[in-house]
Structures are given as C-alpha cells and as structure tokens.
Design a protein that fits this description.
Enzyme class: hydrolase
Subcellular location: Cytoplasm, Cytoplasmic ribonucleoprotein granule
InterPro entries: DNA2/NAM7-like_C, DNA2/NAM7_AAA_11, MOV-10-like_beta-barrel, MOV-10/SDE3_DEXXQ/H-box, P-loop_NTPase, SF1_C_Upf1
Structural class: alpha/beta
Shape: globular
CATH architecture of the domain at 715-927: 3-Layer(aba) Sandwich
GO cellular component, one term: cytoplasmic ribonucleoprotein granule
Largest sheet: 8 strands, mixed
Strand content: 15-25%
Keywords: ATP-binding, Cytoplasm, Helicase, Hydrolase, Nucleotide-binding, RNA-binding, RNA-mediated gene silencing
C-alpha cells in the first residue's frame, strides 16, 4: 500500500510504476507555494491555480458577491495537513513527509547543502588566525593576455592574533594539486611547512597567476593548521580566481542587472476584449471553405496543466488520448492531439513576452509599440496578429485588441477600436501577445480531411519495390542544368521522379549537406513539365526563405507559368523585388493577395510554404488539380505541416516528392511533451525508417541518396561523413573556395582548415533571462573575425562569415561586440543556418561551468547531445571551421569527444590540452560519467578535508526547459 496516496495493494498493483506516476507525485509534492483566492477564500497548491480561476464555480462565486473574477493570487496559509521543507523549498503533505525525507531529491539537496556549509565554514577565519583578502578570496579580475603570459602576482598574509597562542602550519597547497590537474596558479610561502606561528607573527604567501590562454580560471588555496594547545586541526580556505581576456569587453558585456529568475504568475483571464481593426489585406481573399476552430479539448488541457515533468505527462497523454496503434484510420486523431499539445506550450511560452507599464506612441491612426527581441523573432509577430493592451490602472479584465498592420525592425503598428480614446504620451500599458492560430487551424483542417490513402501515409513493399528504377538515358540529353548530367545520383533522382506512375508512393530525394537537393528538385520540376504537358505542380517548403529559393530558381518559367503564393501577413519589404512579378499584389491593399481561382488554375507551378498551401483549397482549387506535390526541406516540417498540401490538394493519382535530410535538424518543437511523443519526427524521417525506403533496397524506386558534396573542404566533411553518412559523401567543391584557407597563418596545422580553440569560459546570465552568455568566448569570436577581415591574402566580406551559437543571449552579445568590427556577419542559432553555407563558420558553444553540470546533462548544452544539431553546425563551412568552447564540458558527450579527438590528432587544437586520452576509444551512448564522478569526487574530497561531513551523489536541478533559446518558427 502507498500510504501518502491511500492506494491499497492488490495482486495487480505495481508500486514502482505507481510512485513514478502523476497521481503519486501530485499527492507527495504540492509545489513551492500555497495560493489563496480572495473571492472564494480558499487556498490551493500553486499548480491548481489556473484551473481554479477558470472554473465555473469560481466565476459563480464572484458573480454572487458582485466582484470581478479576475483576481491575482495571494499567499495562502499552510494547511494543517501539510509541511514546508525549507531545504527543498517544497510543500509536502504530512503523510508524505517521511517518503520525501528519504527520497533522492531531498537527499541530494541535503548533501549539497552540507558541501556548501563546509565550504562556507572553511572560508572563515578561526582560532585567532587572520588571512587577508577576506572570504571573497583572491580575485585577479580581468588580466590582458600579454600581462598574463608574463605572470601577475598578489600576496596573501597569514597572521596569528591570539596572545600566547601557538598554531602549527602543517601544509599550504592548491586544491588542484590533489587531483594533479594543471593550474595557472602557483603559491610560494615564506615559511617551510610544518612551522609554528606564534602570537603576533605573520607570514606571506605569494600567489602567481600565469597562463597564455583566454578564459576564466579558479582554484582554492588550502592552509591546514593545528592548534598545539588543544591538539585540534582546522583549515582555512581562500578561493582564487582570475580571467584572461579583454577588460574592455568585460566592461561592456558583463551583466548590468544580476540574474534573478522571473516569477511566473498565471495570467488573469480577459473578461472583456474590445475588437481591433484588422488589416484590409487579411480580409481580401474570398474563401469557399471555413476553417475549423479546433480548440484544445478541455480533457487534454487538464493533463497538460500537470506540474509533472514532460516524460510523465507524455505517458499520461499516450494512455488517455492517443490511439493505441498508428495507421491510416487513427492517423488524424493521433496528430491532432500532438498538434494541440504543441499549441498549449506555444500559448504558454508567449506569456514570457508579456510587458508591463510600457508606452505607446501614436502616429495618426496607428499606435506604435516597441517590442524587444522583435528582430530575432522573440516573439514572432506578423501582419494580422493580435496584441492586447490594457492601460495601467484601468478596470481589471478589460482589454483592447490591437491588430498588427505593419512590422518594423524593433516596433509594430497597431490599430484599435475607435473607442480606444484618451491616449496621452504619459500613459503606460500592460501588453499581451496572442497566438496566431490560423496556421494551426489550417493544419487541423488538413488532418480532418477524409483523404487518408495508405499508399501515401504508410507505403508497403508491394506499392513500390516491384517497380524498376527509371532509366536515365532518355532524360540526360534534355537536362537544363548541365552539371546534373554528370552527377549520377542527381540524374537518377530526376529520371525516377519523371517516370513515376500516377498514384505512386512518395519518392524521397535524400540530400546530405551541400549535395544539391534543391537543384535536383528544381530540375525534376522542369523535367516533369517538359515530359508531361498536362502536369500541374505545387512546390512547398516549411519556410518562406526556402520557398523563395525554389521560386527564384524556377524564374526561367516566366510569370505566366510560375506563381509565388504569399500569405497576406508577408510584408513586401521582406521579399526580393525580383519575385514581385511572380506574385499577386492587390491594387486595393497594395499587399500580397490571391488572384481569382480561374487565374490560379492557369499556372503550371505554384510555390508556397507548406501551411499556406491550404489557401489553394480554401479558394476552391479542386482535389486532384495538381499532378505533383513537391516538398523541399521536408525534414524541417512537422508531419501535419507536410499534410496540408498532401491531404488537401492530392487525390489517389497525385505523386508526392519529398526532399531533405533526416540526419539534419527536424522541425522546431517547443513542447517537451510533444517531443517525448515523437512530434519532432518528420514525415520524411518516418518514411526513411521503413524498409521500403532503405537507401540500397529502394534506390531509384523510392529513394535516391545524393553523395557529391559541392560545399566543403574534404577535412571539414570528413568527420560528419564518417559519423552520419557511411563515408559515402564525395568532396566535389570548387577548390578555389574550399582550399582558400589552407595555409592560413592563424591555423595550428596549416594544412588542416579546422581549428578548435579551447577556452575555460564563464557562464553568465542577467536580469530575468535564463539564456547563457560567455564573455571569454565572445572575445575570441571577435578576435577571429578581426583576423579574418584583416587578412590580405584571402579577401572576404561580412557575408562570407557566419557565427553559430545555441544561446540567444550569447548571440546578442556577439552582435553587440561585432558592430564596430563586422556588422554584416550573421550571428544566430543552428536552426537559422540550416540550408545555408558560409566560407567561414565560427561555432561558439558557450557552456563552461561545472556547477551547472546536471543542467548540461539534462538540457544538452544547446547542441551537444543532439547529433543532428551538431551535424548541421559543423557542415555549414566551405573553407574554414573554427570552434570556440570548453573541452571539459563538451567532452561529456561521446560525439563531441570523438570530434575533439579528431581535431587534436589532426593538429588543429589551440589552448589548454585535453584532460583525457585522445587515443582511447569513445563509448557509444550516454555522457562521460567519469567527468561527472570527478566533479562529485572533488566536492566529496573537499567536504571530507574541511569537516567530518560526507557528500554523496551531489546533483543540483536548475531550470525546467531551455525555451528561452528555442527559436519561433515562421510557417506562413
């Protein structure tokens, strides 16, 4: 029996599974706070607050009392049946108190607290001994590289202040000496130990900081004493720290406001919202079908509101909501549920961007609102989106809806209802961003379609493998891009696509980095049009940038045959003017629109994003009008996004062609629950996992793998080729570009165009943002950009350089410091660079601190434990790849450790040498537990030396999810 939950034991009762479940966790771990409702005069655990204030019972009580139901939570009183654990800062039911004390989280926190107590006690002067520099320790602050190379000194004094006291100095040492780890610090004492320090006497210890490499370094000075009068041993410790880098950069970039996690409070409900004025462009299209609302079911919301971790919520969703088997009949239900799970998290994450007490600036009929982070799509705001504002001090629950009419670099223009009067420049407003549900509703409409053809969704061997690969001989003489004629895999892909019988299973062009998959798709489209006069094609991509690339390469068709369909939310300023002739611009609204359906039917090729393809169905294009649906970069689309064109526009004769690389990044999924439920698995990846799409068995019938890489130097390609592509990729790039940095004077190995610069940096955060930045790495990135720009042998522009980093805060700091050096260098996340290439790529990995070691293990260091993110990052470079990072942290991951071994053994390493054997085979899977154990051992050893306390298995949990750094996707 589980006493806290009162669950009786029976033969089928699985205690272990019960303890891991949602019900047990809710009963035994209420949360961090008890909140009180001033309307109902009742207290609730924090995780139940949202459910309470949205309940009919709460609304009814407020109505009876004649007060607003929009209330903020107050601190509630701790109920008599609960206790507060001050160590864990959790509220625990009394009948679960004993299990909590014996549980692993409490024991880990207790052990860590013991370590901190031992450390704090050791830092204090005691028994009459006074040591200079105080408990803050020896801080060299920031030392410029030339000074640190020669060495910088400081003096620590030790004094006995007690009359007639005799204190023996047994040992003076650095903590690093016990683990034999190289340290940039050395200590030299005036006395030889052991020695007796009598009353009034003092001696000096010289601490020398000498090191040639950038980074943050720390150690501990440990002085062991013995009071001879009572024969008692004790120790006094002083932390030692120093930074080697740029003082200027530190002054400019260090946190201006100390980091303090933002308290998350539930949004009070909006009781009355005055509708705003939408842009005319959003109402310019005449629809023949209505989009379903597809609101999230309340039963699913109740599960998702659980305070449990993602894996447990996912397990509950799987049991309660998902069909037991995924097939053509259950397909729609399965993916609608996953789409709702993702929408729930998107809505929740938008609350991060709520603003309080901000001004609005009026310009005629528009109100301008400055939105921090808008340039980085944090949040993503499009024309037609809704933003709610409420004047500070106004009636609670009363909001005005502003529709976005234009988007600038750092601001948006809003229009409100005419009743939005009395605005003064001095007024301040609270602001809420509302999720644009139109793209989600389009996907739900597609998933609800009755078209669930098994030969498309779940192709079987009988559908595809009996067919022979299309012969290439008839295609070769007519190839438009002559480079394809000499590339056997590309030629085979084009031939196979052209000769697919109507209603074939989806065909996949598997395109690893730099192999020309978009070139292949464009050629295939042109050849289909040439060989089939009645062909009609819709070509889609997950993003506007990818769709624009397809359209720009198809301009040979001219505006009579080619139409680029843009959503009305797309600003003309965001589109290359050369594509305006291929789009439809309304003469009334002067914005992108959709021409009459009769005009649309005349085009032979229509290019759009995956989601916007539903517009074609919405204006009345009949199913089966298109003979082919092409989806480029299909690995970056969720399965519901891919299904918009397939399920809404196809019939049993339509052929589907997908191109992408399942070894690179999948779609961006914000919800940890959705990721647990495999929502990150794209349609193309799911197909590629089946035997029917085996690269050898299905070659030319269901799939063609492109193998000629036209992007990278052979050494840059070598490692990902080995790890991800079975060593099948062949370097075929233009050697004038790919070899342009061989012999560069700043390479460690002049013939090897990869450089790993090891730096022991410092993780920092500021204000309420949980995103990390690392100033030593920012300095090194700037240094390398300067060296590249100053080089006289290889002339490159800002556009030839890209900087990739997983943390939004770090990207902002890099952009800030590059403004005066190279303002045009693109700095962004791995997701922002997928599908792109640069002559030089600099990767800054950011994470350094061992104190965040469990966070690193759980949250994958940005891209450390995600092989696809690693693959994309290291395959963007054409001629030179520079990585700046902390090898001690990166080596936690086997893939990164293998890569670091590869670079070290090729002679491409700068900075402190690896602390591990680079010739030792790297095990598969998991993290390097030895590194974790080494950290714990250091803490254990210190606690044992400084006190009688023992530390065991110290791990400290930090934030829940790294959503601050997860970019928002643009899908319309």
């Amino acid at each position: 029996m589980c006493m806290p939950c009162g669950v009786l034991c029976d033969p089928a009762f699985n205690y272990k599974a019960h303890v891991a479940g949602t019900k047990h966790k809710r009963r035994t771990n209420i949360g961090t706070r008890i909140l009180k409702c001033s309307v109902c005069l009742k207290s609730f655990p924090e995780f139940q607050w949202d459910q309470h204030i949205s309940s009919l019972k709460h609304a009814g009580t407020a109505l009876r009392k004649g007060v607003s139901a929009d209330v903020r939570p107050e601190e509630g009183d701790l109920p008599a049946d609960m206790r507060h654990c001050t160590l864990c800062d959790r509220i625990i039911p009394r009948n679960a108190w004993a299990p909590h004390l014996n549980g692993a989280p409490h024991r880990k926190m207790k052990a860590f607290t013991a370590f901190r107590a031992a450390f704090e006690d050791a830092e204090k002067d005691k028994n009459g001994i006074e040591i200079s520099h105080g408990e803050e320790g020896v801080d060299f602050d920031v030392i410029e590289v030339p000074d640190a190379t020669f060495g910088v000194l400081t003096v620590v004094t030790v004094k006995n202040t007690v009359p007639q006291s005799r204190i023996k100095v047994n040992e003076i040492r650095l903590a690093s000496s016990l683990s034999h780890i190289p340290s940039p610090f050395t200590v030299t004492a005036q006395v030889n130990t052991p020695a007796t320090l009598t009353a009034g006497r003092e001696f000096r210890i010289v601490v020398n900081f000498k090191h040639p490499n950038h980074g943050k370094y720390d150690d501990r000075l440990e002085i062991l004493f013995e009071d001879l009068s009572i024969r008692q041993q004790f120790a006094i410790v002083r932390p030692i720290r120093g930074i080697i880098g740029s003082k200027t950069d530190y002054e400019q970039l260090r946190p201006k406001i100390p980091y303090a996690p933002r308290k998350r409070t539930a949004r009070a409900p909006e009781q009355e919202v005055v509708p705003g004025v939408p842009p005319a462009a959003t109402n310019s299209t005449k629809w023949v079908t209505k989009l379903p609302f597809a609101d999230i079911p309340k039963g699913l919301i109740r599960i998702l509101y659980s305070a449990n971790e993602a894996s447990k919520v996912a397990a509950e969703v799987r049991v309660a909501r998902l069909p037991t088997h995924l097939d053509a009949e259950s397909y729609s239900r399965h993916f609608r549920e996953l789409l709702w799970v993702e929408e729930f998290k998107m809505q929740h994450d938008l609350e991060h961007y709520d603003m309080y007490g901000v001004p609005l600036t009026r310009h005629e009929i528009y109100y301008h609102l400055d939105v921090p982070g808008l340039a980085e799509n944090r949040p993503s705001v499009l024309i037609g989106d809704r933003i709610l504002v409420q004047r500070v001090g106004a009636e609670k629950g009363h909001w005005y809806e502003g529709h976005v009419h234009f988007v600038r670099q750092v601001s948006v223009g809003l229009r409100f209802h005419e009743s939005f009067r009395g605005h003064l420049p001095a007024h301040k407003y609270n602001v809420r961003f509302k999720l644009n549900r139109i793209p989600l509703r389009r996907q739900h409409e597609a998933l609800s379609s009755a078209f669930n053809s098994p030969h498309i969704l779940f192709p079987k061997a009988g559908n595809v493998l009996m067919r022979t690969a299309g012969p290439t001989g008839t295609i070769r003489p007519h190839i438009y891009n002559r480079l394809i004629a000499d590339n056997a895999p590309q030629l085979q892909a084009v031939a196979s696509i052209c000769q697919l019988p109507p209603g074939s299973a989806p065909f996949v062009v598997f395109g690893p980095p730099g192999t020309g998959k978009t070139v292949t798709i464009v050629e295939a489209i042109l050849q289909v049009l040439r060989t089939n006069p009645s062909a009609r094609i819709v070509a889609c991509a997950p993003s506007n940038s990818a769709a624009d690339l397809i359209a720009s390469r198809l301009k040979v068709l001219g505006p009579v045959q080619l139409f680029r369909l843009y959503a009305p939310s797309r600003s003309k300023d965001q589109v290359d003017t050369s594509l305006h002739d291929y789009a439809y611009i309304s003469s009334e609204t002067h914005s992108f629109a959709v021409p009459p359906v009769a005009v649309v039917k005349r085009y032979r090729v229509i290019v759009s994003t995956c989601v916007s393809a539903s517009v074609l169905h919405g204006i009345g294009i009949p199913r089966g009008h298109f003979t082919h649906v092409f989806i480029d970069e299909a690995g970056q689309a969720t399965e519901p996004e891919a299904m918009v064109s397939i399920k809404m526009l196809s019939d049993n004769s339509t052929n589907i062609v997908l191109s992408g690389d399942p070894k690179q990044l999948g779609p961006i999924i914000r919800s940890g629950v959705a990721r647990e439920l495999k929502f990150e698995t794209s349609f193309i990846e799911r197909l590629m996992e089946s035997q029917e799409y085996n690269e050898r068995r299905g070659y030319g019938k269901t799939v063609v793998k492109l193998v000629k890489n036209f992007r990278s130097h052979p050494d840059i390609l070598s490692f990902p080729n080995d790890k991800f592509y079975l060593k099948e990729l062949q370097p075929c790039g233009d050697t004038k570009i790919t070899y342009s940095y061989v012999g560069w004077q700043h390479l460690k190995n002049s013939k090897f165009p990869i450089l790993f610069h090891a730096v022991a940096g410092e993780d920092q955060r500021e204000a309420s943002s949980p995103s990390f930045f690392n100033i030593p790495e920012v300095t090194l990135v700037k240094k390398y950009v300067q060296l590249l720009k100053e080089d006289r042998k290889v002339r490159i522009t800002d556009n030839d350089i890209g900087v990739i980093s997983p943390y939004n805060a770090h990207c902002r700091k890099v952009r800030q410091t590059l403004k005066a050096v190279a303002d045009g260098v693109k700095v962004g996340s791995v997701e922002e660079f997928q599908g792109q290439e640069r002559r030089v790529i600099i990767i800054s990995t950011v994470r350094s601190s061992r104190e965040f070691i469990e966070y690193d293990l759980r949250h994958t260091l940005g891209f450390v434990a995600n092989p696809r993110r690693f693959n994309v990052a290291v395959t963007r470079a054409q001629a030179l790849l520079i990585i700046v990072g902390d090898p001690k942290v990166l080596s936690l991951d086997p893939l990164w450790r293998s890569f670091l071994n590869f670079v070290w053994n090729k002679g491409g390493w700068k900075g402190d040498a690896p602390t591990w054997d680079t010739d030792e085979p790297v095990g598969l899977g998991g993290y390097d537990k030895a590194v974790v154990e080494e950290t714990i051992e250091d803490m254990n050893g210190f606690a044992q030396r400084m006190s009688t306390m023992t530390l065991a298995d110290v791990m400290v949990g930090l934030d829940d999810e790294g959503d601050e750094d997860r970019p928002w996707r643009e899908v319309e």
